[in-house]
Amino acid sequence: MIDLPEKTIPFFPFSKTRPGQDELIKEIYYSVSAKKNVIIEAPNGIGKTVSALSSIIPYLKGTKKDRVLIYCTRTHSQMDQVLQELKRIQATKSVQIRGLSFKGRKNMCINQLVIDKAGSSREFVDLCNLLRSKDQCNFFNELNDAMFDVSTYLDKTMSATDLVLIGKQLHVCPYFLGKKLIANVDLIATTFQYMVNPFIRSIFLKDLQKEMPELILLFDECHNLPDLAMEVGSDKLPLSSIRRAYDELLTVATLDHPAIKLFDFHHELLEKKLAPYLQKRDIDEIDFEVSSMLLREILKLMEPDPTEFVMMLKNLGRKIKKDKIENSSRKRSISYLLRYAQFLELLLHSIDDPQYLHRFLVLRTKTGNTIVHEIKCLDCRIILRQLYEARSTIFLSGTLSPLLAFMEIIGLHGETTSRKTVTSPFSPKQLLIGVVPGLTSKFEHRNSTTYEKIKDYVVHVAEVTPCNTGVFVPSYAYLHALRSTNLEMQLKKKKIALYEEHKQFLTKKQDAMIQEFKLLPKHGKKGVLLGVLGGRYSEGVDFPGDEMNSVLITGVPLSRPTYLITKLEEFYDKAFGGKGREYGYIIPAMRKANQAAGRPVRRLSDKGAIIFLDERYNSKYYKKFLSSWILKNFQQLPSNPKLLADKIKQFFL
Question: By C-alpha distance, which of 593, 584, 592 is closest to 564?
């Protein structure tokens, strides 16, 4: 007999629970029952998705109110996993729950004309809207034909992939088929943007035909949610976009147009201040304060009515954009004048608001350095606050420690929010976790001697690891320095291949490289993946089984102390009672380390060695920010590479 709340048992598809799984189910079930929000740190291998579904489905079916679960994931593959688990519940329990996974138009469109011409998601929307307004999309027209019976699909659970297949088979639009079905389902799996972005959220709620109190929200792998919300509330304007907006304006106006002076001033302001940095090759990013005096100079050039001035530019931009969309010979349909007007709109809103920061940036790109004016949202609470109108909002991740900090940063309060750290399902025999004393990657210790020591640890650990090893370092500069040792040659002597994360790699090239790395064990080979903490491979990719047996976390990935970091710390100091350094600097770095530590242990059957190569992780201060499942098994490891290798070898026997 399983020890679960009675109403969840009909929706739990297994005869027994994993260690910690009953804790997770109970915490979610009772929090939703009490109409509370809940923040849960639950380690990998516990079965988070099926646990969450089993906990929440009782509140969707057989209730007086017709509630809907919005299950938000970071990636499309995670969306598919939600639907797979729902189908498992349906198959074993004969549950009549209707589910749907939903993606944006760019991922669901099958109209080749739109696919060929549109680039960004925004362009897909614009071209789609134009074709539909002129009855020129046959897929949309077929969907709305009286002969097409949507009711055939109302009682089915379907993924976005299923919708695309139906669209291709029946020559109907998959995206709008999904929109027709969305108001009739009990569960929708989608990406964070659909609930975090206020504009997208408002449209989504209209399609759902629901109010926020009728929803139960779940954010899975939500550790980066504050960053995403801040990004949604921010905007960037490159210098090149100002030039292009100026050129566009001259196609519809003369040189005496009132906006010309504004363009000249804004362009000159950026170029004069930052031009000396354009040719520098030794920078990834450098930022500078934009004084309120300069912002008010921009504002003066929009007088007498800045709001009306912005609206005038937006209308001109919309006209240019419409002309570009209708001109089939034009590849891009973006209006830089409209983008500039939208940036000015946020500038008006944020100019005296301490929750926003204005800064100038020089960024290194594939084509060289570029100058940017950024308006940065410092407070994710202004973006997220509407979410808490839902019946309950559930936040799940394996790396949320400390939970109080996460709760405060996203704007929740103790009286309306439960917090829970779930017991790890892994036994001590499955995990070797510890720190190597006597090593540090503090900036003043980053020299050739340190890199040689790190290289020795990497080679010795990789040699005794059964299959693949991951090595994650604080920055790309650190990665290149480690790479410049004879690391690759030493690994090659041991018949171990080296794979390296590249900042400028295209997504397809990165995917191909990581897939090759993952498949090495199946061919009797092994490799080392060298990546960056907080990067694509240390957070966005799972390495179950032999895809990664050991991981070395080298250094603490503390951000470079930029103007933005300094101002964020100051803002958090005021907002959270002197906790600015912890909330804005230390905790984000430690979350990156916690995420990297979990790469080798994704399934309950996995066995992994997790080695911290920096003595700071053993200090009382830094250690308190490590996830509970790490601390439970944390130990001091040998400081000699050979002795450490012997310990790891014994562990894997």
Answer: 584
> Cα 259 from chain centroid?
37
The reported pLDDT for the residue numbered 596 is: 96
Helix (H) or strand (E) holding 422: none
pTM value? Answer: 0.93
**Chain position carrying tokens 């009675």:** 6
Pick the CATH number of 1-12+23-97+186-223+398-423 from 3.40.50.300, 1.10.1670.10, 3.40.50.620, 2.60.200.30: 3.40.50.300
Which residue, 338, 600, 582, 591, is CA-closest to 471?
A: 600
> Tokens in use for 51?
């646990």
> Residue 89: is it exposed, middle or buried by C-beta count within 10 angstroms (0-12/13-18/19+)?
buried
Q: What does the alpha-carbon distance between residue 345 and residue 333 come to, in Å, rounded to a whole number?
A: 21
- Cross-strand pairs, 361: 287, 372
Residues 216-226, buried b or exposed e (16+ Cβ, 10 A)?
A: bbbbbbbbbbb
CATH code for residues 235-377 = 1.10.275.40
Kind plus residue range of the DSSP H or E element containing 368? strand 368-377
State the DSSP code for 615: G
What CATH architecture applies to the domain 428-652? Answer: 3-Layer(aba) Sandwich (3.40)
Beta-bridge mates of residue 362: 286, 371
Place of tokens 């430690």: 590
- The token duo for 573 is 């100091």
What would the pLDDT profile of 475-495 be if each residue is shown by its tens digit? 999 999 999 999 999 999 999
